[in-house]
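Allow me, if you will, to draw on your knowledge of protein folds for a short while. I have a record of one protein: its chain in single-letter code and its fold written as discrete structure tokens. I remain grateful for any guidance, and I place the record below:
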Amino acid sequence: MKPGKIYKAVAGRIGLLKKLADACGKAEGTIWFHVASLGEFEEARPVIEATRQRFPEAGILLTFFSPNGYEARKDWPIANWVFYLPFDTRRNMRRFLDIVRPSKAIFTIGELWPNMMREIRRRGIEASIMSVRTEPGSSLFGWLGRGRRQIFRTCYRHILVQNERSKELLQSIGAPNVEKVGDARVDRVLKIAAQPWSDALTEKWCNGEKVLIGGCTSSLRDDDLIIAIANSHPDKKIMVVPKEMDPGPMRRMIAAVKGRSALYSDFEKDPAGIEKVQVLIVDKVGMLAHLYRYGYAAVVGGAFAYMPHSVIEPAVYGLPVLVGPNYLRETHFVDLLELGAGTSVSTPDEAVAWFDKLPTMLPEASEKAGAYCRANAGATDAIMHILFD
């Protein structure tokens, strides 16, 4: 976590337990969802929304560990209360659970805080974890994962995983009640794609044509792929939506694309001339999942570090996806790769070669990307049935 985020995480927890007590300390039957950050929130979001629809009078508490998620969703109206999770000390967790007294605790992907889970187990609170995915090389299965393995074995009433491989791996360490249900994010992106949505400025820039979209770019190496494609094909328009609204990388890209790149915000007051821009950098949050509908293919960031960001957001619109080399933790991309709707590269030259071949592969890859998302719908209903029926 960067120093600025550490400061926000600490500062945001000052007086946290008192704020919690004042907000929801008298509520009964609270349904508590906890996610680490914004990505995990998107995994949980369809289930939280379905919970609100099914139990309109219920008190729903949503907690985050990371400032990224909390700052983006602290005013989210579907939850009654949105707070940080207290730091995982024994005293904090005892006080937290004394205040909240949840009827259910539902976690997403990998929230395995030992003091929190120990106290939940001691109190007999019904806890479940969803959207779990794991790989054979995960630290969960090494000597560092001993404590986390014990949590999986003893703390959850339901362990809901995304794929058969994760189910088999967790069962091999003695985890009970493991069920494969898929990924509720697929339902979320299908819902977004079905919604009417348009952006006048983007449409003026696109001028009736589909474009290449760089989504959630989060490193200079992600940017280098896009810069190489842009400079080798100066007649092709590219939209870039960075993960972080950091002006430094944006200025770097504008300089590298040799005067043919500009910021979206430069044209919000006066759109004149936007059609002449080759690379449009969208310096505005909250639009990416909708903007993919203007694309024919996507370069998704993140895979030069830990793993790609969401590849199903573009795939639902039939966009084949290009990512960097570290993709094994993103099971959806592994599936798309096997289908021929995903490609991994390590260098800008390889990205240009992919783009050169794209016209010949696009029709089949596009159909397979969209079909993959449609075939994997339904996880939200399955999760709701297990958690609440």
Summary: The mean pLDDT is 95.
